[in-house]
Amino acid sequence: MKLLTLVTCLFTFIIKLIFAQQNSTSESASTLISQYGNSFKNQGGSILHDKVNVYIIFYGNWSSTQQQQEQVTFMNFVENISISPWFKILNQYSDNSGRTVTGPLNLAAAVNDAGSHSLNLTNDIHKQIVEDAVNSGYLSPVNRLDSNGVYIIMGGPDVNDSEFCTTNCGYNSYSNDFQYMFIGYPGRCSSSCMPQVNINSSPNNSPAIDAAITIFSHEIQDILTDPRNNAWIISENNTNYELGDFCSGKGTVSYQFGNVTQETSGSYNLELAGSKYLVQTIFDLETKQCSLGSK
């Protein structure tokens, strides 16, 4: 979906949780899987196949030692996630030419923007932030937008957004020239934008950035398989459902996170390059279940 909302039910990824450990990848199907799992298909649009460059704009104040470490944690996840069994599920999603979402995600560039468009944002400003960052030369040495890339705006703890914390925790969208997502700083509204199981401690010692990774794990499913709102999407009654919506749910549901390991340092369901993360499962086209992938 193009908007990661907090309050709607079927097509949102609710991350305000009362969490319980789950013992199976997915023994019960979501409502969307029951309704559309067998008919879900590409509507004829493009996907993001082969290597996908990722460009990150850390917007706002990320100057503290803690926040700099959070940047590293997030970038490490983006850089390494493509080798995971979780990401390989996306190989099942193709365009009409038979090309599939293979990755890898390639962290092409990252830049700090202390607040070039103020610290009070709206959705309309997000595109301009991306365009200005590219034109500055910091994201592209040739000042050129990457039409096959993904631009991420990561809001810092001092950044307000008109819909963040009230309508969404993050969302993805596109312009004529590029795809992008905005993820707010979950620490600004921990009761709404953090998994409650990791609200006090988390696998990477930052409940905020671990929550941002969880949000990203939903949005990247949508943006890779439906970058322009015309590929892997179901439109019904003025509502759009995308890949990430199949394994999201209201509250805690068994298919949302799959097998979760709970430790004093936080809960996780994915180990990758020596680190641990909590990610949303992905709808497996073959098994018709939400999955973390086969190890």
UniProtKB/TrEMBL annotation:
Keyword annotations for this protein? Secreted, Signal
Q: Keyword check for Secreted, yes or no.
A: yes
Q: Where is the signal peptide?
A: 1-20
Predominant location of this chain?
secreted
Q: Which GO terms describe its cellular component?
A: extracellular region
Question: Where is this chain's protein located in or outside the cell?
Answer: Secreted
Q: Name one Pfam family in it.
A: Phi_1
Cite the InterPro entries for this sequence: EXORDIUM-like
Family membership noted in the UniProt record:
Belongs to the EXORDIUM family.
The protein's name is Phosphate-induced protein 1
Q: Which organism is it from?
A: Rhizopus oryzae
